[in-house]
Design goal:
Layout lengths: L1 E2 L6 H4 L2 E2 L5 E5 L4 E4 L17 H12 L12 H7 L1
Antiparallel strand pairs: 1-2, 3-4
């Protein structure tokens, strides 16, 4: 696994890029909407340093050579309903 470097400082530098699939539902130059599996943690926390959605997105963006800032937004039931 490799660390993703960020201009945001040491906390953001701690995000570990970990391989794994990411189902992208929508993406443009500003936002990416993904389908997060129900039991997967969203971002690193105690006991979950490299098995989260943020880690998988970090891997995807590192492979693309793209910089990014991970900001999770959850509970968008109206948007979820529109995608179905």
């Amino acid at each position: 696994m490799s660390a993703v470097r960020s201009p945001l400082g040491p906390v953001a530098d701690a995000l570990i890029a970990a391989p794994g699939g990411v189902e992208i539902l929508f993406e443009d130059a500003y936002v990416m909407a993904v389908n997060k599996p129900p039991n997967m943690p969203t971002h690193p926390s105690r006991g979950h340093f490299a098995d989260t959605l943020a880690n998988r997105v970090a891997w995807l963006m590192a492979e693309r050579g793209a910089s990014f800032v991970f900001r999770a937004v959850t509970g968008w039931t109206e948007i979820q309903a529109a995608l179905c």
